[in-house]
Amino acid sequence: MATQRIVDFLSQRRPMSPCLVVDLDVVRENFNGFRRALPDSSIFYAVKANPAPQILALLAALGSSFDCASVAEIEMALEAGASAGRISYGNTIKKERDVARAHGLGVSLFAVDCVEEVEKIARAAPGARVFCRVLTDGEGAEWPLSRKFGCVPEMAIEVLEHAHRLGLVATGVSFHVGSQQTDTQAWDGALADAAHVFQRLAERGIALTLVNMGGGFPTRYLKDVPSAEAYGRSIFEGLKRHFGNALPETIIEPGRGMVGDAGVIKAEVVLVSKKSASDENRWVYLDIGKFGGLAETMDEAIRYPIVTARDRDAKSPCVLAGPTCDSADVLYEKTPYPLPVSLTVGDEVLIEGTGAYTTTYASVAFNGFEPLRAYVI
């Protein structure tokens, strides 16, 4: 929900709609929550979730490290005060010249998931440390991240052995159990796969030291989610189960769980209409849609809480859509969204839980609409 600081900012500043407002106090609380939940794991904030300089600077000052998907994100983390040793180039799909640039900036930890990527890093960043991403099924996640990234564990063994032969430091294994993962047990199978890779490589004389357990930690939307402490307990039990007393160094990469509930989008109703006299559902068009920052409503995967000043009035189902001249710019139609019957043109709405993956997903100028403006307080 919107914090009092956000409510006060919107009422006092009256910024133009649509806009995102992020409360840094919530980000700080979330970081400390992760640190308490997994005190022995290094926190590498997933910069792609929200790269606002104020957020990166706060996290750098708190001692966070950073998971970066591009050279631009690496430069942002460095500018925010992080040292190169606190940065991971976590994208498995990198241009060779970008690998060289990152290595030149001092970054020495790179993600891979195939021998071809290993060979690029061996050429462009000799002696670097690499970890191999393994596939997971993503079951239980509202935004699965399987298929495109990672390889099966047996291939990861060959990838890391190949890295070792080429003079790289085969450091460990990574995985991602899927974004907005609501099953606290989801990490167990992936940790079993990681332990298997560790064991097989040890048999070949290669000692791995790192398990990057990725992100997946959720934020609250319309449903309650487990606490960071619940995830921490489950993950630590999994580590002990599969690694025994020889616990590896571990990394977590929270993104959505770090900033999602810190942000609220203020939007405006542009139009309320029906398609026929017998249409059961109203169409409510907002001044923000998929192309303005709400891309995660694709397939209605993420259902954001929407708050209006008329919420005490009777509600009925609505199809919710954005303002652009594109038929794909519909947010909720398969499962219509209940909104007040009295909602009308010009009303303001607050879309909560929007601190992550909104400004970074917003188009530059589709249909001439400007990118989503953001304020960090």
UniProtKB/TrEMBL annotation:
Could you say which enzyme class this protein belongs to? lyase
Entry annotated with the keyword Transcription regulation: no
Keywords of the record: Lyase, Pyridoxal phosphate
Pathway(s) where this gene product acts: Amine and polyamine biosynthesis; putrescine biosynthesis via L-ornithine pathway; putrescine from L-ornithine: step 1/1
Report if keyword Lyase is assigned. yes
User: Which cofactor is recorded for it?
Assistant: pyridoxal 5'-phosphate
Q: According to its UniProt record, which reaction does this protein catalyse?
A: L-ornithine + H(+) = putrescine + CO2
> Entry's InterPro entries?
Ala_racemase/Decarboxylase_C, De-COase2_N, De-COase2_pyr-phos_BS, Orn/DAP/Arg_de-COase, Orn_de-COase, PLP-binding_barrel
- Indicate what this protein is called per its UniProt record: ornithine decarboxylase
Q: What is its EC number?
A: 4.1.1.17
| The Orn/DAP/Arg decarboxylase 2 N-terminal domain, residue ranges | 26-259
- Which CDD domains would you find in this protein's record? PLPDE_III_ODC
* Pfam families linked to this entry: Orn_Arg_deC_N (PF02784)
User: One GO MF term, please?
Assistant: lyase activity
Taxonomy of the source species: Bacteria, Pseudomonadati, Pseudomonadota, Alphaproteobacteria, Hyphomicrobiales
Q: Which organism is the protein's source?
A: Aureimonas populi
Please report which protein family the annotation says this sequence is part of.
Belongs to the Orn/Lys/Arg decarboxylase class-II family.
